[in-house]
# Entry
Amino acid sequence: MRQQPTFPARRVLVAVALLAVACTESVGPPPAHDARRTPKLTTTAAAASDIALDQWNGTLNESGIPTACSSPCIVKGFNSTNPHTGDAIIATFYWVGPPGIITSVTDYVTSVPNTPVGNTYTLVAASSANGISMATYVATNVQNFPSAVNDPSGAMILAVKANLAVPVVDGGVLISAWTGVAPTAAQAFGAHRSASGTGSGATVADPGAIPVNAGALAYATTMSNGVVTFSTPAGFTEIATQSDGFMKTDGEYDAEFVVSGTAGTVEPQWTWDFGLLPSTWLASVLALNPAPPPSGDLTVTTTTAGPTPAQGYTVTVDQTSSQSIDANGSFTFFGLTAGDHSVALSGLPVNCTVSEANPQTVTVPSGGTATASFTVNCVSTTANDKITGGGKLGDGRDFATFGFEARSSGGKIEWVQHCDKHASGSATCQNGDFTFHGTVAPGSYSAVPDSPNCRTWSGTGTAKFKDMRYKNGTYSFTVNAACDNGEPGRGNDYVDITIDDYNDAGYLTGGNIQLHGRHRDGRE
# Structure
């Protein structure tokens, strides 16, 4: 069941018996019917930022070249109170004549009628049949005029005009300004439909149904060359009904979706009482979307306990926007849409876990800053494991063979460098063949930062050189990394060792490295 709006409304009927040869419609002080305004759309359920009717005005009986124009036009001002800057203006022009004769729609302040203030009016809906036409234009976020000024003299009034390719024998306009509409056309414009028809007796004018977004306004208008009575659409509130000797028009709005905050469909239907004489009707309906809520910011902080990952983590908002963040740091995402957002922390080493939910749902306030905190707990990856290995590094005339076992309490390593006489110029064969036996220093064994499958350790040992015996002696060594990257070890496992000024590193060309007591993904 449709919710019936509770906004007060007032029907305005403008009746003009005779059509003037050349219209002299003033955009200064309003005629009597312009002073009778529909009250502004306000309810206790509507927020201050909801769409609401600000000002309206209208006229028919326009023809020729009005005194306010230097060429054919249809024009009307918001006598005697201007809209607010930032409003959206809906201008529906009605005329007896063919479609497509409006070359542009502009606005100006009445004190300088030949100087447009620069707002852009876009054609949204139009309909024409049997010699009558109407077209609805919309401008969003209107600017460059005295905002909300009340000027009975008419000098500072904002006026809207349709510039015509040819004069019309009869025309008019209904202008209305609305607060709370989205500021750009892309955001503001919703669905629209138009239709026309001819009938006699009770005839339904129906532009068709359109979807309306939550918080959006539905605006509807009809026109007929039959100056007769009609019934208004159910659920709509009247802006103004106007008539003269050649046409009758009606403008309506439906604020159901503004008040309810839900989406739905709307289909305005007027029932014209055309009697025995067939007459033509036109009808249009369009939706205007509300302004989005002000954006907000989101600050994400991380706190890490235990071994700190050197490269930090990655924080991602709504699975679309990612940013690196230190292990103990913060980062702020600016300009997020107000509302709920998903925040996830990734890139954690396997020995680290997050205390909070991951991802988290955080509500970003309009114009404010929300926070999301992640507490990361990291544990030592080496307490209960050991690493063993044996194999070959390099190939051909310059290669090394090795074997080792290492853990937190100690261990041992053998490293043998093989060189023939043709390899003496390589970095690893500058000292020729040698054999090194080393002992792992207790407590030197640890995980390689950000590499859970790798271990490092150091110690001392003795080296015996085949050709440079004077170098025989005790040396310090460090296994910078020994990595179990999967099976087989050849081509996957990696080793990097430094013995005094000697260094060799690379993927195994034979053999295997095995990390015991912990899976290769870091789990116990």
